[in-house]
Each structure stands twice: as structure tokens, then as C-alpha cells.
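Key result, reporting period 2: structure in, sequence out.
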């Protein structure tokens, strides 16, 4: 059976995520990666480690979207219930996958460790499902086709481990190659970053560009004082025609907000500043106090920062502010270490 992946749903499984004890970064990464492949994610869902919830979640999402990607619940402990949940959706028994079992045995033997009965559970799969190799961990993934009750609808369900270091390589090796798009359908996206303007003011200037019926679609996201205009085309136009529409919309956004645009795509505020300084042949140094080196850290996280950034001082104590940064002790005594006057002197 072959059916196109017109949209997708992402399911995160784990008590620690549902309870807010761990941050779910997997869903964001998967949705972003799917969008880059031309598949829009229409729902994110998070549930705890519960077999009944897992069955209901997979069933509902498989009716909603022809591609479902779940993470978590594939380990060797008694609260890892994803394989049982998938079997419940399929109405099938769990069987031992002999290839997966041999791989597990070899992995443990290579480390001089005995494999427990709980570890063997990772070699179980629903009868019609197939195992997805995991070269970076012990828990294989699962892939199954869930057919609708009417016998017509169907969804590819991929179950991947929760650790990102295992999940991401498995997605690239096992999920991405199996993506099936509608023939001729195209998705193009562009991100334009802004600073120095509020979301409401930016939306007012864009006006009808943000009409939800417009093609390409334009939206705004605000995060950490930075706005991002998202331009997305979805349709059946050829690459050049679709690209021209995105370019036209890009130009209209810049005409309305150009003074606030500092970059696009993967650019950040820091990388854009460094690029501007590099183009002008300028260098940068910093003197920090309460930030404790944070400014230097965010600068040096940018690849190639060394061509601009020469170094910094962390002068946390008043003595070091005077000794290393030349701040007069009297100024600190008069205004206090945390003051505009001392910051300017630094």
C-alpha cells in the first residue's frame, strides 16, 4: 500500500515530559525536519507512560495524519510501553524479532555484560511491524502501517527512542527516506528576522500580508526580543514560480519592515552582528560582571567568531573591576557596582 504523506503528527511519550520534569526538544526537531522535507506537522501530542493512553493516542493521530512519529517508551523497563501500545492498535501479538535479538546479544557480549530478561523485551515487535536498527543504543525502533477502520485510510507509524542522540540518526536513516509527497506538490519556507519592533507594530505594518488565506502564508513568531516573519508556500507550482512568489513576499516584508531586518534563515542576532563587524574589519572585546562570562559564551558559540572576537574579562568582584577594567574605586563606592555609571566605566 502506498499513500502520500500530506501531513504529519508527532507523539511524545514519557511521564517525565508530561509532568514537565524534562523538556521535549524531540517534537520541535522532528516537526522542523519534516517541514524541510515538505511535510507539515498538524499536531503535537504528549502523554505519560500508559499503555491505554498510547493505544488511544496512536489511533487518533493515525486518523488525523498519514504519518505519525512517536518518541519514547521503547526501553527495557516496565514503564516502557510503546511496543505494547502499538500492538494494541494493530490488534496483534508481540513476537520476538530474531535479528534484533541477535543484535542485542552481540552488543552486550561485546561489552562483557550479561543480558537480562528485561533487556530482551527490546527485541519484541507487533507481528506486522518491522524493527528499525539503532546503532547508537539498545532499543530498536518500530515501523508499522495502521489501517483505518474503513479499510481505506492508513498511516505510517514510526516509533523512535527518546534520547536525541539515538532518535535523530534513526530519523535520518529510517524515516526521512520513506517520506512520500504528493507528486508535484512543493513546500518552500523562508524566515526573516527582525529586532527593535514589537509584534503588534510589525503586524500592523504588514497588514494584508498576514491574511491567512494568502499564498504564500505569512506569520510572525516572537522569542527573546526577536521577531521572525515566516513565509511558507505550499502548492503545485513549479520551483521557479513558487520561488518567485516567496521572493515577492520577501521583498514586500522588507519594504514594510526593512529597517528592523537583521538576517534570515539560520542567522541569529549575534551572528549578524559578527558578520557586520567582519565586513567592516572591526574587532570586539567584552568586559562582564553580573553576566559571569555569558556574553563571551554566546559570542564564541558562533562558528568563525575568532575572526572578530579577541577576548573578554569577567570582573565579578569590585577589586577586579578596578584592577583589570580600570573602574575607579570611588565610582563604585558612590554609585554601587550594579549601576549605569559603573557599567559605562567598564
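The corresponding designed sequence is given below.
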Amino acid at each position: 500500500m502506498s499513500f502520500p504523506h500530506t501531513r504529519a503528527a508527532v507523539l511524545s511519550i514519557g511521564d517525565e515530559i508530561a509532568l514537565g520534569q524534562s523538556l521535549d526538544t524531540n517534537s520541535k526537531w522532528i516537526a522542523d525536519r519534516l517541514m524541510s522535507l515538505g511535510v507539515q506537522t498538524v499536531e503535537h501530542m504528549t502523554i505519560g507512560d500508559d499503555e491505554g493512553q498510547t493505544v488511544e493516542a496512536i489511533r487518533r493521530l493515525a486518523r488525523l495524519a498519514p504519518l505519525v512519529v512517536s518518541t519514547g517508551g521503547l526501553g527495557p523497563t516496565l514503564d516502557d510501553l510503546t511496543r505494547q501500545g502499538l500492538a494494541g492498535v494493530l490488534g496483534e501479538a508481540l513476537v520476538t524479532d530474531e535479528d534484533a535479538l541477535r543484535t542485542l546479544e552481540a552488543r552486550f557480549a561485546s561489552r562483557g555484560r550479561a543480558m537480562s530478561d528485561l533487556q530482551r523485551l527490546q527485541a519484541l515487535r507487533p507481528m506486522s511491524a518491522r524493527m528499525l536498527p539503532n546503532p547508537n543504543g539498545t532499543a530498536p525502533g518500530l515501523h508499522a502501517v495502521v489501517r483505518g477502520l474503513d479499510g481505506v485510510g492508513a498511516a505510517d507509524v514510526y516509533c523512535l527512542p527518546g534520547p536525541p542522540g539515538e532518535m535523530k540518526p534513526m530519523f535520518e536513516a529510517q524515516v526521512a527516506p520513506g517520506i512520500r509527497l504528493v507528486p508535484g506538490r512543493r513546500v518552500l519556507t523562508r524566515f526573516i528576522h527582525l529586532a527593535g519592533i514589537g509584534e503588534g507594530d510589525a503586524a500592523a505594518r504588514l497588514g494584508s500580508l498576514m491574511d491567512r488565506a494568502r499564498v504564500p502564508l505569512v506569520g510572525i513568531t516572537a522569542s527573546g526580543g526577536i521577531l521572525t516573519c515566516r513565509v511558507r508556500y505550499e502548492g503545485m507550482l513549479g520551483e521557479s514560480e513558487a520561488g518567485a512568489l516567496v521572493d515577492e513576499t520577501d521583498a514586500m516584508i522588507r519594504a514594510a519592515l526593512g529597517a528592523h531586518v537583521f538576517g534570515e534563515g539560520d542567522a541569529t542576532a549575534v551572528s549578524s552582528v559578527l558578520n557586520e563587524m567582519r565586513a567592516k574589519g572591526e574587532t570586539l572585546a567584552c568586559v562582564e560582571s553580573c553576566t559571569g562570562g555569558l556574553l563571551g559564551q554566546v559570542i564564541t558559540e558562533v562558528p568563525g567568531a575568532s575572526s572578530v572576537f579577541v577576548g573578554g574579562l569577567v570582573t565579578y568582584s569590585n577589586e577586579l573591576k578596578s584592577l583589570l577594567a580600570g573602574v575607579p574605586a570611588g565610582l563604585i563606592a558612590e554609585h554601587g557596582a550594579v549601576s549605569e555609571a559603573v557599567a559605562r566605566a567598564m
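The CA atoms of residues 96 and 124 lie 5 Å apart. The mean pLDDT is 94. This case is discussed further under Risks and Mitigation.
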